[in-house]
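Page 37, continued from 36.
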C-alpha cells in the first residue's frame, strides 16, 4: 500500500473511526528543466543564507513565522501538533448536508479515506449511511500545518475526503470589477431553444476515461520529433479565432453547433460499439 499523507481518526458523534488519508490524484505533467542557453547545461537552484551568502543544507532548513519585521519564531513538527492535538489528529464531522449542496468553486483537492483494521466496520457504516441518505458530511481537518474545511463523499466502495476552500477564500463577483460584462443582453426564445438543442445533443453519461490531455500528447510528439531531428515541426493548420467586434450570426452558429455535436456523439457511439 502507498504511504499515507495523514493518519488519524474520523470523529462521527461519539464514534471514532481510525483512518489513513491517501492522495486520490496523480500528476501527469511534462516536467521541464531550466537550462543554460549557451550549452544546455541544467541550472541548479540553491537555498542561500541571505546574511552570509552560503548555501544551506535541507537538514538545516526550518519553518519560521515573522511576527515582527526581522524577528522570527521557529516552529518544528512537534509545535504544529501540540498547538491543538485533537484538531491535528481527527477529522471532525460537524454537519451533514444534501449531496450537491456544496458549490463547485469550494472544491480544492480530492483525497481517499481508507480505514485502519480496527475501524473497518464503523467506516463502512458511515460510508453506506452517507450514500443511502444522499448526504455529504462536512468536517474540519488539520493537515500539514493548516486547518481545512472538508467534505466526506461516499460511493459504493470508498469515502472521498474533498478538501474545501473556506468562504473567505472565494472572491465575490463584485471584486472582479467587470463592469457591464456580466449584464445579460436581450436574447430571443429561438436562440434559447437552439441552445437547448445543443445541450441535448451534447448530453451523455459521464465517462471521463474517454478524454485525454491532447495538448500533452501533441507536445510529447513534438518533443520526440525534435529529439530526432533537432528541428521544431511546422504546424500549418490551427483554428481561426473570432476577431473582437465582429458581428456574429448567433442563430447560424448554434445551428451548425447542433449538427456538429450530433455528429461527434454518433461517431463516439460507433467507436464504442
Amino acid at each position: 500500500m502507498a504511504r499515507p499523507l495523514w493518519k488519524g481518526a474520523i470523529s462521527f458523534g461519539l464514534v471514532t473511526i481510525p483512518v489513513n488519508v491517501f492522495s486520490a490524484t496523480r500528476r501527469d505533467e511534462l516536467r521541464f528543466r531550466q537550462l543554460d542557453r549557451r550549452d544546455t547545461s541544467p541550472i541548479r537552484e540553491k537555498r542561500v543564507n541571505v546574511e552570509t551568502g552560503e548555501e544551506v543544507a535541507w537538514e538545516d532548513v526550518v519553518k519560521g513565522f515573522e511576527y515582527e519585521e526581522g524577528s522570527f519564531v521557529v516552529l518544528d513538527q512537534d509545535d504544529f501538533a501540540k498547538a491543538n492535538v485533537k484538531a491535528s489528529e481527527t477529522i471532525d464531522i460537524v454537519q451533514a448536508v444534501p449531496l450537491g449542496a456544496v458549490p463547485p468553486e469550494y472544491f480544492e483537492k480530492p483525497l481517499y479515506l481508507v480505514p485502519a483494521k480496527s475501524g473497518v466496520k464503523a467506516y463502512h457504516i458511515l460510508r453506506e449511511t452517507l450514500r443511502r441518505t444522499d448526504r455529504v458530511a462536512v468536517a474540519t481537518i488539520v493537515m500539514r500545518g493548516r486547518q481545512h474545511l472538508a467534505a466526506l463523499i461516499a460511493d459504493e466502495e470508498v469515502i472521498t475526503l474533498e478538501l474545501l476552500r473556506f468562504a473567505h477564500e472565494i472572491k465575490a463577483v463584485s471584486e472582479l470589477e467587470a463592469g457591464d460584462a456580466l449584464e445579460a443582453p436581450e436574447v430571443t426564445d429561438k436562440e434559447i431553444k437552439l441552445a437547448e438543442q445543443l445541450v441535448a445533443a451534447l448530453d451523455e453519461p459521464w465517462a471521463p476515461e474517454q478524454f485525454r490531455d491532447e495538448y500533452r500528447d501533441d507536445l510529447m510528439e513534438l518533443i520526440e520529433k525534435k529529439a530526432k531531428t533537432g528541428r521544431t515541426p511546422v504546424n500549418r493548420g490551427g483554428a481561426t479565432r473570432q476577431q473582437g467586434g465582429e458581428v456574429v450570426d448567433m442563430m447560424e452558429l448554434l445551428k451548425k453547433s447542433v449538427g456538429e455535436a450530433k455528429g461527434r456523439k454518433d461517431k463516439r457511439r460507433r467507436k464504442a460499439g
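The CA atoms of residues 47 and 57 lie 7 Å apart. Flag for discussion at group meeting. The chain has six helices and nine strands.
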